[in-house]
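Aim 2, interim progress. The first record below pairs a target sequence with its structure tokens.
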Amino acid sequence: MGLFYNNNEAGSGVAKRGRQKKPFFRFWEMFANKFWTFFKINLIYVLFCLPIVTFGPATAAMTALMRNIYLERPQFVFHDFWQAFKKNFKQSFVIGLMDIWFIVMAVFSFFFFTSNMNDTDKPYWLYYAMVMAVEIIILLMNFYIFPQIVALNLRLPQILKNSFILAFLNIKGNLITLAAFLVYIALLGMFFFPLVFLIPLLPIAWLSFLAMFTSYPAIQKFIINPFYEQQGLKNPELPDYDDDDEEVLFEDRGGEEAPMKIKKQDRGGKVIK
């Protein structure tokens, strides 16, 4: 699962009857084709994150653009970013506040536990390991939370449940993305002051695209594709359908398979049981 596995089963949104390349080569081809687009997205993202509290909606908007790139859908960068920012504001704002809180707790835990690590009366190293394990799981969940917010019509508790399960299902893809994120965080920690003025140009968008490329096939495989198969509806994300067929009805089966109020466009998905 992830960057180096076969996502034909999950679909890619390529042109009808188009032959899909291996994921590794497809990733680098798309990365090269959108190289400068990533810089534009990155700059817009940083500007929208300046109030800090808008971190969540800005991340959702960037995720929406990365999803379009992954599905090879045309887009107007700023217009689509702004539309996704507004459309997904409510759910992503809540997640953004939660993420900010977890980031603050991670930083506080680092300084607190490292300063008390020599205290032999209490196993601070064990407490710190437990906190870091929780933080890593939350980071892995974020790889799936924002793509589901922009792609599906699920309630936030359902999205969190799906994301928690996928954090353990898509091991290979998670490890690839997690390694990239940890290297990025380590570089920021080592060279923060020299790089602080380059933040608008740093590859946050590259990481977002990598996360999309490794996580979205799992979302398609376990959430999106099963929904359309169970409902007998055309899946707009599979390569067999033209863009004209994208408008479909959405039902969230949830635990009781009850219909759910639909949003615009293709928002099909289910809750993993």
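The second target in this work package is listed in the same format:
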Amino acid sequence: MSEELRTSFAKFREAMWVINDYIVRVMAEEEALKGYSQQQLETLRIIRENPNISQNTIASTQGVFKTAISNRIKKLEADGLVVIQPGEDMRKKSISLTEKGMNLLDKAEDVVYSKLDQLLENHFTKEEVIYFTKQLDKTVQLLKDE
């Protein structure tokens, strides 16, 4: 591996940390989002994309233990953001978003995406941002297929 490529990978890793930190700070500034971690909001996103999903599938998707997801889901349910229902197989439960959960997730995305847009709009064209995210999508797919 060339030194230039090695440096690029190091910069990519650093960028991921800085972006995540920025998102956490943006969410912490928004009153409606203060009580929720980035992991909880990511759980809501996964549930939105996969209605009636099981806790096992959420745990697998997020790469965490089922007990962590169970605790996370209990908090989200207590806050009225998700509903847990018996699945077709009575041993499994399915989880779906409530309207309140949808609204919170929409708010979180609006806040973060708006801040990112404000930050980037004077430095990158719309096309550059779209191209960059398409490259990230390819990377994500390669990692998922690994």
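The beta strands are 82-86, 93-97. This observation will shape the mutagenesis plan for the next reporting period.
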